[in-house]
Amino acid sequence: MKQIRIAIIGSTGSIGRQALDVVREQGERFRVVALAAGRSAELLAEQAAEMRPDMVCLTGASAIQDTPDSLRRGDWDLLCGEAELETLAALPQADVVLVATSGRVAMPATLAAVTAGKDVALANKESLVIAGDLVTRAAKRTGARLLPVDSEHSAIWQCLLGEDASTIRRLILTASGGPFRKRTIDEMAAVTVEDALAHPTWRMGPKITIDSATLMNKGLEAIEAHWLFDVPLDRVDVVVHPESIVHSLVEFIDGSLKAQLGWPDMKLPIQLALTAGARLPRPDPEKRPFDLATMGRLHFEPADLDRFPCLRLAIEAGMEGGTAPAVLCAADEVAVERFLRGEIRFMDIPRVVDAALEAHVPSRVESLEQLLAVDAEARQTAALACDRTIK
Ligand code: MG
User: Fold this and answer.
1) Is 339 in a helix, a strand, or coil?
2) Quick one: which of 54, 171, 194, 269 has the fewest CB in 10 Å?
3) Cα four-point dihedral sign 253, 256, 262, 264
4) Ligand 1 mean position, distance from CA 353 (Å)
5) Which class is domain 4-144?
6) DSSP character for 103?
7) Cα of 266 from ligand 1 centre, angstroms
8) pLDDT digits 0-9 by tens, 12-42
9) Any idea where the domains of the chain sit in the sequence?
10) Dist. CA 374–CA 34, nearest whole Å
C-alpha cells in the first residue's frame, strides 16, 4: 500500500487526537502533511514537533505574532485564522483531508477540499447536515470521495461494500440512547451538566456528548446518512441499542439485513476512512477478544420522540430541507453552549431549537454565503430564546 498523506483539521480535538494515535500505530502507512487546530496552541505545537507536517494552522489566532514561539520555531508554513483552513484543505500534497472539528467553521474547508478533488474523511456533521447539497454536488463534479468517520455511517458504508445502492430498502442507525435513556421528562428537567456529559458507552467531545444525550446527534446523523448514501430521509430509521455493539444496519429489498459489529472504538472508523476502506490490522481496543457468547445479550428498543424532542425536530428539519437544517444546527450549537455554561436547563435545548425553526422561513440552498447568513440569524434568534428561558 502506498503511503497516505493526510491533512487533519481539528487535530487537538477528540477525533483528531485519536487519528494521530492511528498514525502512530501504523508507522509508515501514513504521513501527516498538515495540522490545524482552534485554540489549543501548545498541544498543536507538540503534535507538529512530532509529526513534522508541511503546514500548520492555528485558527484561533488572527496574526502570527499571536502564536506561541513553539509554533513559530518549526520548519512548517504557519497560517492563522479560520479563512486559512480553505488553503490547508486544498494542500496539493494531501491525499485525504480529515475534517475532525465540530461546528460550522469546518464547512468552508470541507467544501474547499472536495472542490479541489480531495477525498474527505468526514467527522464533521455540519458539513453535510447544513451544506449537504453543495458538498455532494461538488464531490460529484470533482470525483472526490466522502469517507465517513462517524461509527454509524462507517457501519453503513461497510454494509454497502459490494452492494448495489438501488437495492437498499432502509438504513437503520443505532443510538446508544445516551445517559438519560430511562429517565422521564420530569427527571430530565433537573439533570446537571455533569450528568449529561457522562455518556455510557462513547467518550467524545462535550458538544457531541450533549447532542447524544438529547438524541439531536442521531437526528443529525440521519440527515447526514441521507446525503452520504443518497437515500431519502423517510427511509432512514433509528433504533436504540444501549450496548453500542451493533454500529448500524442496512435492510435490502429482499428483506436481508446486514449489520456491522464491534467494540465502541472510534479508531477503527477513523482508520478505515483514512485508508478509503482498506483494512489494516488494529490492536484490540478492549484488550480482550470480541466474543458474542460472553456478551450474552444485545438490546434494542424504539426511540422515544416525546422524551427526546430534539430527534423529532432534526428529522422534521431534514424533511423540510433547504435552509432548515442550517437553522437547526445553529440553534443547537447556541443552546448546547449555554447549557454547558449552566445558563439554561437541559430540556430548554429543544425549546430553543424549536423557537429558531419556528421563526425561520426555509428556502432553497444556493451558496455557502447564504447558509452562513442563515446561520448568523438563527444564532441571534436562539440567543434571544435562551435569554427568555432564564427569566
Ligand atoms: Mg455517531
Assistant:
1) helix
2) 194
3) positive
4) 20
5) alpha beta
6) S
7) 9
8) 999 999 999 999 999 999 999 999 999 999 9
9) 4-144, 182-214+304-391
10) 31
CA of 92 relative to ligand 1 center, distance in Å: 30
With both helix axes pointing from N to C terminus, report the angle between 216-229 and 151-160 in degrees, rounded to the nearest 10. 30
Distance 14 CA to ligand 1 centre (A): 13
Residues with CB under 5 A from ligand 1 (ion): 150, 152
d(CA 370, CA 282) in angstroms, rounded, equals: 43
3-state SS class at 12:
coil
pLDDT at res. 391: 57
How much is the pLDDT for 390? 72
Amino acid at 258: K
Rounded to the nearest angstrom, the distance between the alpha carbon of 116 and the centre of ligand 1 is: 27
Contact at 8 Å (CB) between 108 and 86?
yes
**Å from CA of 290 to ligand 1 middle:** 20
- Joined together, the cell numbers standing for residue 314 give 432534526
Per the model's pLDDT, the better-predicted residue between 389 and 331 turns out to be 331
- Ligand 1 centroid to Cα of residue 128, in Å, is 14
Q: Which CATH number fits domain 182-214+304-391: 1.20.1250.20, 1.10.10.60, 1.10.1740.10, 3.40.50.970?
A: 1.10.1740.10
C-alpha cell of 47? 503534535
**Whole-angstrom Cα distance, residue 263 to residue 38?**
30
Share of the chain above pLDDT 90, in %: 90
Secondary element (H or E) of residue 6: strand 4-9
